Amino acid sequence: xEITVLWSDSAISDLQNIHDYYxxxxxxxxxxxIVNAIVxxxxxxxxxxxxxxxxxxxxxxxxxxxxxxxxNYKIVYLLEGEMAFIATxxxxxxxxxxxxxxxx
Length: 104
Hints:
Layout: E1 4-7, H1 9-25, H2 28-42, E2 53-54, E3 64-70, E4 73-80, E5 83-91, H3 97-100
Parallel strand pairs: 1-5
Antiparallel strand pairs: 2-3, 3-4, 4-5
Helix pairs in contact: 1-2
């Protein structure tokens, strides 16, 4: 089953912030490598939308929320019919409780 993957404005902003952080702390090559790895990982959802685990911290939400892991980041997404909607990119080095309070 092939589905469409869409990115929320918040997830795009998260990617930009990740890029900017690594650009300032490392260099352009590292920043691009990390962002490209996250985007490439999200493309797995096109053919395998349920490949990610259910996000336990967001089980209280009514939507089906899952995640993929790429490096230090969780790619948090919702499944709705024939669409995977990437809601946020969460840095796993943060307090996990921050994810449960995030607007998704």
